[in-house]
């Protein structure tokens, strides 16, 4: 059974930084792409970033490109999301997800992701 456990959320002022972590267990982590999604109050869930199984390829939503960095450590079964220059509009619950595929190309819709964490809250004050 796959388990994804996020950590690292919190309250930060605009312009600040946070690093989210997601520890995975249950199947061979290095075989699968990983993603971070977010859902703000009253809004639909949206894609933030994705990383291929090897870490070679990444993909970012336009809204976070240049500010967020996704990375993974396959030896630790962990994926990270470094978030810099945070804005109030980044406030959301952030979810880690594991794909059924090993690539991230054209996977922003989220349907390829078949396992999800419980989410971690990120709040950015102005």
Account of the 3D structure:
With 126 residues, the protein is mostly beta strands. It contains no helices and eleven strands. Strands 2, 4, 5, 6, 9, 10 and 11 form a seven-stranded mixed β-sheet that branches. A four-stranded antiparallel β-sheet has the order 1-3-8-7, with no helix packed on it.
Specify the helix fraction band.
under 10%
Gyration radius (Cα, Å) is 13 Å
* Through-space gap between termini: 40 Å
> SSE order in H/E notation?
EEEEEEEEEEE
Question: What is the compact description of this entry?
Answer:
This protein is mainly beta and 126 residues long.
What is the secondary structure topology, with strand pairs?
Blueprint: E1 3-7, E2 10-13, E3 18-25, E4 34-39, E5 46-51, E6 58-60, E7 68-73, E8 78-83, E9 92-99, E10 113-116, E11 120-125
Parallel strand pairs: 2-11
Antiparallel strand pairs: 1-3, 3-8, 4-5, 4-9, 5-6, 7-8, 9-10, 9-11
Descriptive tags:
mainly beta; seven-stranded mixed beta sheet; four-stranded antiparallel beta sheet; 126 residues
């Amino acid at each position: 059974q796959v388990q994804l456990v996020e950590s690292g959320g919190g309250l930060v002022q605009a312009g600040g930084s946070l690093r989210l972590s997601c520890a995975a267990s249950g199947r061979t982590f290095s075989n699968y792409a990983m993603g971070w999604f977010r859902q703000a109050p009253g809004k639909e869930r949206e894609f933030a970033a994705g990383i291929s199984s090897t870490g070679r390829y990444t993909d970012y939503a336009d809204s976070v490109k240049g500010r967020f960095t996704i990375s993974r450590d396959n030896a630790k079964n962990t994926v990270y999301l470094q978030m810099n220059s945070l804005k109030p509009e980044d406030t959301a619950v952030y979810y880690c997800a594991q794909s059924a595929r090993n690539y991230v190309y054209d996977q922003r819709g989220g349907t390829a992701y078949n396992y999800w964490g419980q989410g971690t809250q990120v709040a950015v004050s102005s």
